[in-house]
Structures are given as C-alpha cells and as structure tokens.
Design goal:
3-stranded antiparallel sheet; 25 strands; 386 residues; 6-stranded mixed sheet; elongated; mainly beta
C-alpha cells in the first residue's frame, strides 16, 4: 500500500487524491479517553470529543428550596417547600453519643414529614433556623424553621466561669431570603448545609476559697485566669532577707523549665533548735526544742520593797516568753565590797567593810582576830595568848 510520502511526491493529480482517500480508509485509529470515533454517513471517519455525562444530584442540599408556588389564599404570598436539614451537635461528654443530630421542625412537625409541609412567605421574608442552648452550649428543645421579616442577632451561650453561672444561647441561622424579581420572586441563599453547632469549653473551679479561673470574658472572647503573686515585705529601713513561697522562674517565664510552678518547703534547723511538723492534713507546725525553764536571781537580803529576788528570764519550748526581762544585772549581793583570799568581811551597821588579810607577822608568828568593842581588828600573836 502506498504511504503518504509516495502519494505526495510530485504535483497534485486526481489519482493522488484517490490514493489518499484509500489510504485514510485503511488507517486504524485508536481513540483515547474522551474521544469518540464514528463512521461518516458518506465515507471516511468522524472524530469528536465524547460529551460528558451529566451527574444528577440524588438529593437537594439541606435547607434548600424544592418548590415555590403562589398562595391562593393570601395575596402576594408564596408557599415554599424545603429540603430537610439537621442541627449537628458535637457531644464531648463520655456519657452520650459523640454526635447528636437534632431534627428541625416546620410548623410544629419535623421537616421530614410527608407530604412536605410548606412555609408561607412574602417577598422580603427570611427563612431562619432557630434553636436555644443551655449555659454549657447543649441544645435544648427542638430547633424550628421561622419566617421573619427581620433576623435578630444570635446570642452565643456563656459558659459558667469563676463565680458566674453562665447564660444560655439563642441562635438565628439565616437559610435564605425570598426577594421580588420582575413580577416574580428569586431565592438568595445563605446556608445550604446542615448546621454545625459549636460549643465553648467550660472551665470549673473545684473546691473552695480562692478561684484560679476568674471568668469567661465574653467581650474579648477569652478565659481569664488569676496569676500567682509573690508577696514581698515592705517598710522603712533595711528589709532583712526573706524566703519566697513561690520559687522564681528560671530564665523566661514561658520557657519549658517553668512549666511547673514550684513552691518552697519549710524545713527545721539542722541542729534541732527549731522543729517542723507536717500533720498531712494541711497544717505545718513550727515549734522549738521542747526545752523550758527560767532564770531566778535571789538577793542576799531583802530589798527596800521586801523582795527576796526576781525572775530575770523564762523560756518555753526553747523560746523566751517573758516580755520585760532585765537587760543587765550585777553579780553578788547588793552593796558587798570586793576582797581577796584571807580577808574578813564584816558589817559596821551601815556598810559592809573588808578587814584585809594582814599577811605575815614580823616576828614570824601569826595574827589574832580581836574585837575592840567597836570594830574587829588583827593583833599580832605573841605566843602566849589569843
């Protein structure tokens, strides 16, 4: 069989056109995807793109309009039938199914009721899905389709936080609006899908006293938590060193090393002067060494007020307990003079007097203590008498 090269050699002739036609008739054509090959009604082959098959949707989208017809009983009104839709709630508690489907009512009956119920609307009306929640965001009651001229603002639920009990939510979801259009009406869609309801997380302070979680700040859409603050002593003069209950951060506050907030411990002195007892029930007792006593100063004689002595210092459990101890005192009896070994102390009726040790006698003998009737004195010993 001739090929195209040989056919087109030289000038064009009627025979060459005939040979080209025979060549094309004998040509095998392999059609690819999307290519359609048909025999011509006269001669030859027709190659064309295969038309795409139209995919028909099996069901209209949720909350979409299925039909509109004029209301014969209300001038300017229309009867609108809708595809049913659902309000879907994500249930995070472990006591219920994780996904809750809430069917929506229309005119007091579920939208899935057959024959379908129709909403009565006039141009300018909105079709909305209305539902409510409790303060933790769980859907309450049955959602319903409402036809309104003006759509109210939705109010998101407010979760309980801090000392606040929270508040329930009210939701108005715009589905579509019916508008006038050149003597007829048209649909302006806002939503053609099931409604996904979003809950805010709820934080709770357990126990009592001070709350770490302060509140849900609705205006700024955030949760506020209190910060642990270290109290630092202030006052006049030099502040002595003090221990911190909350340990300072290591480097930057947001570093991983500070993920745990550390608190200082209370310990007892290594020598045991101070003891610390933790009862395991929240009470830490700091105490002394269980040693108690007092220091009593006894006078040699009564003072002018008839006192025989006084307690200078008392202590209990190792700690001083008297509030006004004497800062200093003089040792020995009141008014007594000082002396040396061998001295004699006597009282002359007014004061204490020291009779000094006379030392060694010049004649090598001793001394005799005598009394003249007025005062005592040392006399030399003559060996005969005392």
């Amino acid at each position: 069989m001739n090929d195209l090269y040989s056919i087109f050699q030289g000038g064009y002739t009627a025979n060459k056109w005939r040979l080209l036609g025979e060549y094309l008739k004998g040509r095998e054509i392999s059609a690819g995807e999307g290519i359609r090959v048909d025999d011509s009604s006269s001669s030859g082959t027709i190659i064309s793109a295969a038309p795409k098959r139209e995919v028909r949707q099996s069901q209209a989208p949720p909350f979409s309009v299925l039909s509109i017809r004029k209301d014969t009983e209300q001038e300017g009104g229309y009867l609108v039938s809708l595809q049913e839709g659902w309000v879907i709630e994500r249930e995070t508690r472990q006591t219920a199914d994780a996904i809750q489907f809430h069917q929506v009512d229309l005119d007091g009956e579920p939208m899935s009721t057959r024959p379908r119920r129709e909403a009565i609307m006039t141009p300018g009306d909105f079709a909305v899905c209305y539902y409510t929640t409790d303060e933790e965001g769980f859907v309450t009651g049955t959602p319903e389709i409402s036809i309104v001229a003006t759509v109210e603002d939705s109010l998101h639920h407010q979760p309980p936080s801090g000392e606040g009990s929270g508040a329930g939510g009210y939701y108005y979801i715009k589905l579509f609006k019916l508008e006038a259009d050149n003597g007829g009406v048209k649909i302006v869609y806002y939503q053609q899908s099931d409604i996904e309801h979003t809950r805010l997380p709820t934080f709770r302070n357990v126990g009592g006293e001070r709350y770490i979680h302060k509140e849900w700040e609705s205006d700024d859409d955030r949760y506020d938590f209190r910060t642990l603050k270290q109290f630092e002593p202030t006052g006049e003069g030099t502040i002595p060193p003090y221990g911190k209950v909350i340990v300072d951060a290591v480097g930057e506050e947001f570093d991983d090393a500070n993920d745990a907030i550390k608190f200082s411990a209370i310990s007892e002195h290594i020598e045991g002067e101070i003891e610390v007892d933790d009862d395991g029930a929240g009470t830490i007792t700091v105490r002394g060494n269980s040693k108690s006593g007092s220091l009593y100063w006894e006078y040699c004689e009564e003072d002018d007020e008839g006192n025989l002595g006084e307690t200078l210092l008392t202590w209990s459990d190792g700690l001083i307990t008297n509030t006004n101890p004497n800062a200093s005192f003089k040792a020995g009896c009141a008014g007594l003079p000082t002396g040396y070994n061998g001295d004699i102390l006597y009282h002359n009726g007014t004061d204490w007097v020291v009779l000094t040790n006379p030392g060694i006698n010049v004649n090598g003998e001793g001394w005799v203590l005598a009394h003249s009737g007025v005062f005592p004195e040392w006399l030399p010993y003559d060996g005969n008498s005392f």
